[in-house]
């Protein structure tokens, strides 16, 4: 099978064309081919196929086109057999074809292969074969690349890359034809191309040579004169050296004179930097990002490659190009040094834009809104600065070293700035594979169609070109090949060899590792310079003169004198007065790796002392690595640095520093009180960082330290901390933390019997932690007693916390009315905006469960307004899962899908449980409302069932029935049955689905059981507590009664259900009930 995208998309199978069907089906194939071999999410496909014009049921339409395209590509595939060409993956869909099956791949490979073989004066012997290869490659084009796709997302960058390669092919073809003396034919070929690209010097130069070779010297000179004037008028620049050489050759009547290079002539390299060779495709892709920013769009890209391959050099070329085009430029560099303050690269970006991170920050930590809300406020302030400077290029280098807060801020920027003249370009190493926050950033960039630009080693010809440009001496092809094989074309390794090679000669034996080369160069330095380099390597990639002088205890002038040999050798460069950096991170790594552990520890201690007041984060970094003798100073410095990180809401970095502090305390002999305070601070940092496991671990450690102190109040405060900040059930479904339950029971036993805040908190926290323990009477007693204590004490803050904890501990259908009452009491007791938001959220949840839908919308709007103002991610997640299904039931699918995506993004930033099941259930609700359930959704729910603690058998049977898979539904029900024994937050939805399943498969006994269970909840919506609303319970009572054979009851409940649908404004639910009852 062959797929063509160099024009309108087409497919040939066994030499015969394949009918691809509707235009959108063709666009789907083009979108998949654009990512050939890689999975594409449904959202990304919808964006590529429809853009901003996606219909409300785009997801359902996409499924239809996927099914149709599969039939076209694999017409002989048996029913229900797995697809082998358009395959489903956990991350979306993938076109599973060999690379050669795609014409764009074959074209790229052919052009690059020929281009490597073309020289300015190719020998005539090999020209014929190269021309045939180019002619065949160019013949693949039948129109604009990816003509079936909109000019959005990654499409423009790929088109630009292919168009650039097409021009390279045209130019190389001209070189080859002129080598055979076919100058007149080349004139005909290139004239139209030059009109289309009038400022492309290399193209005009080749046309000038062809004109001169055809005896048209005057026309050639006129072309060059016209281009010179145009460059001056439009760009304000002179022609490059290549074009000037062509002009001289024409004047001398040397028709076969020097051909201009395809790549732009690189300006004279500044001291310490080598000429840029190759990289045409990478520069074209980066240029496309600048095109987007200049046109008022937002674009993103990331350069990926091994260390030393030239990512940073490409970024420097990009920034120069952006400034030349009038864009503002802001550059941030991530620090290899773990001691860099949080948001280090963003501090550089903001500094370039005249802003300061501290000035943008929200209120200082410690208040009730110091967590997620303040952090989002800071992020929004940064976005405001970026918007104000558009069109803007933001460059973030070395993302593999970025702190988690910086990466999450970058995700926020990409998510929230969909338009507005911004190009964001980063660079990272290819290995190790991204994990944690870096992996999350990769998913976000992929979702937004960011360009992933792989940067590989130089080709053999480019290795020789670099050597010749740097030394003035040509290398033999065999020597260049040897260098290429040993260095893998890594430009940094090559330039280090150049610096080390005597007289610029290619060494006979190339060292096996770059560290060997750097080590040899360092060894040739005077001893004082070597010592300073070792101290600087401990300081980090960048270091200050005063820093080194203070650590060495010597005058700065003397240190600068000793550093001069390293500067002259190119191992170190000066960024600014008194500010230095290693020429490359690999140089710093090589010097640092050569130090013994003892020497490193002593150097860290020497560097730490002068930094204590000026830079707490770096001081902590050095003290923590200075060895056991400095453990006392280390943990205190780490706590201070964590405070600085918390001040800018960098909770991940604060948590990491506090973990380091706790570890250092073990060596330093810290007191139990000191250890307790560190663990409590760590629990807070983990809470706001979304690290639930970290919260639990820190709280248990704090309980142990408080017990060692004999302080039961502190023990109570730590043990009850698991409920703080929660808006939903504390644990994932079915999970209990026995250690924390035991600690809470023990503390409750030892607390005085008199009313106290500690006793109230412990009782309610224990009730919440017992949610999935089969002890309903104990849980209800603890809630009743805890609320009674809170009411008697009368403290507003405690009352608000207590009502929230009581709601978390008692979520089940039978308590919905009581929980609505808790919400009213909490609202009456609220004294702060944060408490009001919490109360409105409780009321919105309980209003849904009790059928007060008008009230639900009122409280939802009030809660959302406050949560958005304070950026309370956990609250926004809960409200999102509440609202999305109702938007679907009202037929507002575009709004529902938009809010669904936003809520998923917010949930990724919290530690809320059910992070898989709730989005899956909400997606199920939307598909049900749209009548778009199909076999793919059934398969997804079946795949979730074995790994989910929720009882999903009833839902699977219902999905099968709605997808028309009645036989499969009966088989699944017969094999798995349906369990109705649970009485928790999920029980109502599970039983409603059991009622529909009973009707669909004809199980009268199940219908009786479901009817009996559901009868008390008539008049309410079917839902999973605060999520997955599916319409009135009365509709499911109608189905249960019909399954049980009671047609009169079924009719009565159906009438009630239709009335509720009308009152609640959800006609789709009534239509679905009618359709189901009529089958």
Automatic annotation (TrEMBL):
Keywords: DNA-binding, Transcription, Transcription regulation. One of its GO terms (biological process) is regulation of DNA-templated transcription. Residues 1-97 bind DNA. Residues 1-97 form the OmpR/PhoB-type domain. GO terms for molecular function: DNA binding. CDD domains: BTAD (cd15831). SUPFAM superfamilies: C-terminal effector domain of the bipartite response regulators, P-loop containing nucleoside triphosphate hydrolases, TPR-like. Pfam families: AAA_16 (PF13191), BTAD (PF03704), Trans_reg_C (PF00486). Gene3D superfamilies: Tetratricopeptide repeat domain, Winged helix-like DNA-binding domain superfamily/Winged helix DNA-binding domain. Belongs to the AfsR/DnrI/RedD regulatory family. This is ATPase AAA. It comes from Spirilliplanes yamanashiensis.
